[in-house]
Amino acid sequence: MKANSFGKYFGITTFGESHGPAIGVVIEDVKPGIKFPLEEIQNELDARKPGKKQFTSSRKEEDKLVILSGVFEGKTTGMPICLVVYNKEARTEDYEHLKDIFRPGHADYTYFKKFKIYDYRGGGRASGRETISRVAASGLVTDLLKDIRINLYPIQIGKFVAESLDFNFRNELNWFDRNNYNELVDYLQKIQEKGDSVGGIVEVKIENLPAGLGDPVFEKLDANFAKAILSIGSTKGIEFGDGFELAQLKGSQVNDQMDKTGFLSNHSGGILGGISTGQSLVFRFVVKPTSSINIPQKTISKEGEEVIFKSSGRHDTCIIPRILPVAKAMIKLVLADAISHQKLIEDNKLDLVDYREAIDKIDEDILVALIRRKEISIIIGKYKKEKQIKVDDKEREKEILNNLKKKAKLWKINENYIEGLWKLIIEESKINQ
Ligand SMILES: Cc1cc2nc3c(=O)[nH]c(=O)nc-3n(C[C@H](O)[C@H](O)[C@H](O)COP(=O)(O)O)c2cc1C
Question: Are 372 and 337 contained in the same domain?
Fold first, then answer.
């Protein structure tokens, strides 16, 4: 399973751990001859990096983007692009004492349960540093988004709520309520001194989005945003439009009525049936308080012994200021995918390059399906051997082929072609069994 890959049309694969040599991303299917936006990507990485803003981790990293492949003389070549950021200030000794301990609120316990081995240094793959890859990759889709504007800002940090928003009020926290900004800074200062942490809520407003982006039923735009946002470490919930408020409202209050001029309200948050309505797209997501705190808490060791753990590594008092560029990157990637698909179904806007991209994508999907099929066949083979069941089952093979032929007939595909293909697949599955 490609658990470290995201996107169907603009696909990326990310790699790297917090204290490994580098964090990076591989991006395929980028058209040749496009100016590589090095400066823009570096700016976004600078906005995400630690140690720059108040209340963020004191880990000092340059986070300088290095291009390993796919770019020549400042332009994309059409080859896979590999981008990395080297980890320079990894202080592994800070984490030595916790190699056998599951830190509260972290992914240590679940990674250990799943893989039986994990890189405990700085959160390993579950570290916030993993998000560098997403920010770097999203820099390549900016042109595709054209006039779409993505605004995101915190509306709550800890117990503070931003009520009157003034977007001209610039500050490191991106907090747009002048009225309680100083109070908020004092509050965060106290939280930091105590070694504790807080979370918050971020609101997203996407403007100039055309109607018609997103697809039924598993590719709904809201479902894809939810997956993209919840894939970021520390995000715990998302709501669209009126969100959880809807529970206590009536249909008569929340249906977005229409007249000749268009929609008269936007309770749905700009998405109906998983497809954009052309209104502002609005959602909010919640970020939990940073797990690492310098306060003793109960946990257990790998051996199951109870221990008291107190973090001594560097951490963000509040993740919100650093999560904004990451969430924006994920939103850009979701939109890039939706726009690319829309281009495919609006036939008149297609050129040969688009058609070839579509065919290449389908071929790749077939390959992935074949690999997965072979993996499962091997598992079935092993299972049967363990249970002393005969591995070869001609009857079952016949049954599957008959079913496929029936479907082929229904879908008007040549039955002989399906039979030939099926026999090849079966032969391949038997190798290594
Ligand atoms: C940009 C960013 C920075 C983060 N910084 C920290 C940090 O300093 N300390 C920490 O404990 N978790 C931090 N996290 C959160 C962890 O990655 C995450 O909470 C942890 O792996 C557990 O996963 P979960 O909260 O998604 O369940 C950060 C996340 C992001 C996106």
Answer: no
